[in-house]
Specification:
There is one protein chain. 79% of the residues lie in helices and 0% in strands. It has 91 residues and is an all-alpha fold. The chain is elongated.
Length: 91
């Protein structure tokens, strides 16, 4: 179906279910990456809370821990990508 300008109409209901399916597939393939992202977000939240509470020393420590957690998460992403490329060719 097209509108007056000739563009094809898209259905947004199906794109949402596709995005959900892709998220679950990624979660199953690399659960450590999802865990790393969650840990990074939790540390970031704790650091921001410490900053807002006025505990600047704890905030600085948490931000340093966030950088480490983020680096580990990126390393996990690279490792799982490499394993998929070097693996048996199955996504």
């Amino acid at each position: 179906m097209s509108d007056l300008s000739g563009h094809q109409a898209t259905t947004h209901a199906s794109s949402s279910s596709i995005a959900d399916a892709e998220w679950w597939t990624r979660r199953k393939r690399s659960p450590l990456v999802m865990l790393g992202a969650g840990v990074t977000a939790a540390i970031l939240g704790a650091g921001l809370f410490a900053y807002k509470s006025g505990n600047k020393s704890m905030s600085q420590t948490m931000m340093r821990a966030r950088v480490v957690a983020q680096g580990v998460t990126v390393a996990l992403m690279m490792g799982t990508s490499g394993m998929m490329v070097l693996g048996d060719g199955k996504n």
